[in-house]
Design a protein that fits this description.
Layout lengths: L2 H11 L4 E4 L4 H14 L3 E7 L7 H12 L2 E6 L6 H4 L5 H20 L3 E3 L13 H7 L5 H4 L4 H10 L25 H16 L5 E6 L2 E6 L4 H4 L2 H14 L3 E4 L11 H7 L1
Parallel strand pairs: 1-2, 1-4, 2-3, 6-7
Antiparallel strand pairs: 5-6
Helix pairs in contact: 1-2, 2-3, 2-8, 5-6, 9-11
């Protein structure tokens, strides 16, 4: 470990108690582990349970919290009750994070914890992140940003701490699978979740299934495209996706990349 890690521990040590918004991803797992190292029982993880969570992520978060040995609380999230979220505007993430931080701040008050933090890192500041506005409004701190930590560094520190999440692919809520302006509802989320579960069962590592009405557009890591195009695998995917309810199944030849739904925004700006 180096000076940045020591700096992070100093930042966390300055809090009387911390509630960590804990998704079970690389960043929040590393943050919760470090907070628990520094603060012990005064560091608590809170995970929102929602239909927008990718399949298996809630269970993974519970397992990681158990490995860390910290207190972990799961609370239902109700962003789908908000018409502003359901309509899926370009700032949709704001409404999702607003609900998450509302839950976290309420829970922190119940537990007598003075500070709520999340796993935002330095690289996150470069992307389209409307949720940062909600974080500012709820006074959520970003210790990884304060410690000037990048994603690559967080993965390295996580590996040094022997966290199994160190090389976990990036995750994002299922609402990110829908083009802006396409309504989000439970039925559509369940279809996308079922498709992504099918790819998990076929042992694909990095992927997204994007919703385009009757069309499911698959993104997989470029090194996995050839395996997906294997006849037996391809036919199994098509059959399963059609059972789930899609009429057409397509493969994005550009491969998986985070935030691909934001590409249309960048093109408009350009």
């Amino acid at each position: 470990m180096d000076a940045k890690f020591e700096g992070l521990k100093e930042i966390l040590r300055g809090a009387d108690g911390l509630l960590v918004a804990f998704s079970g991803g690389v960043d929040s797992t590393f943050l919760l582990k470090t907070a628990h190292m520094v603060l012990g029982d005064r560091a608590v993880g809170v995970t929102a349970s929602s239909p927008t969570a990718p399949p298996g992520e809630l269970e993974a978060a519970r397992a990681l919290a158990g490995l860390i040995g910290c207190r972990h609380i799961t609370i239902d999230s109700h962003e789908l009750d908000n018409p502003s979220f359901v309509q899926n505007p370009v700032n949709r993430c704001y409404f999702c994070k607003d609900e998450l931080y509302r839950i976290c701040c309420w829970q922190a008050d119940q537990l007598g914890l003075s500070t709520v933090v999340d796993g935002t890192n330095l690289d996150d500041l470069k992307d389209h992140r409307p949720g940062l506005k909600a974080a500012k409004e709820w006074r959520i701190r970003h210790p990884l940003v304060e410690a000037r930590m990048t994603k690559e560094e967080i993965r390295r520190y996580s590996r040094d701490l022997e966290l199994p999440s160190w090389d976990k692919p990036a995750i994002a809520c299922l609402s990110s699978r829908f083009p802006y302006g396409t309504e989000i509802n439970v039925e559509r989320l369940q279809k996308i979740a079922a498709c992504e579960r099918a790819l998990q069962e076929l042992h694909f590592r990095e992927f997204r299934v994007r919703y385009h009405g009757e069309v499911a557009r698959i993104e997989v890591a470029t090194e996995e495209i050839d395996r997906l195009l294997d006849r037996e695998t391809r036919e199994a995917i098509v059959e399963r996706f059609k059972e789930i309810g899609f009429t057409f199944v397509s493969l994005d030849l550009q491969g998986y990349r985070t935030g691909s739904m934001n590409e249309s925004l960048r093109n408009k700006i350009a």
